[in-house]
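Narrative of activities, Objective 1.

The group set out to show that a structural description can be obtained from nothing but a protein's sequence at a throughput compatible with the screening campaign. Below is one input-output pair from the validation batch, recorded exactly as produced.
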Amino acid sequence: MRALEAGPPCDTAHLTWGTVVGGDVRGWGSTAAGVVGVLVLYYVLPLDTGMPKWAIWARAVGFVLGIGFVVLVVARAARRQEWTTAGNLPFQGLTVVTVFGVVLFALADYVMARARPEQFVDLHTRTDALYFTVTTLATVGYGDVHAEGQLARILVTVQILFNLIVLATAAWLVTQRLRSRQHRA
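Output recorded for this entry:
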């Protein structure tokens, strides 16, 4: 079986999970722990409505800084990919940062839906917000939860651009890492 792009053939007859991940089970364990940690924080982070304006602005600044952090990490990883041998780029942290970016948009959607319920249709819980963010990322768009107001549509448009540029780059980098490990196995 050959990879989709040109490259050496990959002998999948002797391919095991250990050779795909380079035998680094601890790396996958820390990745899973990081993803679970981000999701737990998503659900336990206090998000009271009816707070003073400075607190709302502080959250907005935190959101922008968080997105900036994700963009920076992905950009640095892409830059490192240019200068390193294919497959030498660590991707576990990149995976956790990608999930962090998704969760940031879910938080933004949830906070907006709580502060201005007319902006979203059927977005009432954190699970609704995470579901909406993931379906938007996956471009599924069932239509059950959707942006209705102009502010929500602007936020979702920014999220779509973020997904297309930043998260697609992160996914490409992780895929390159896995493919290079397969070819070395």
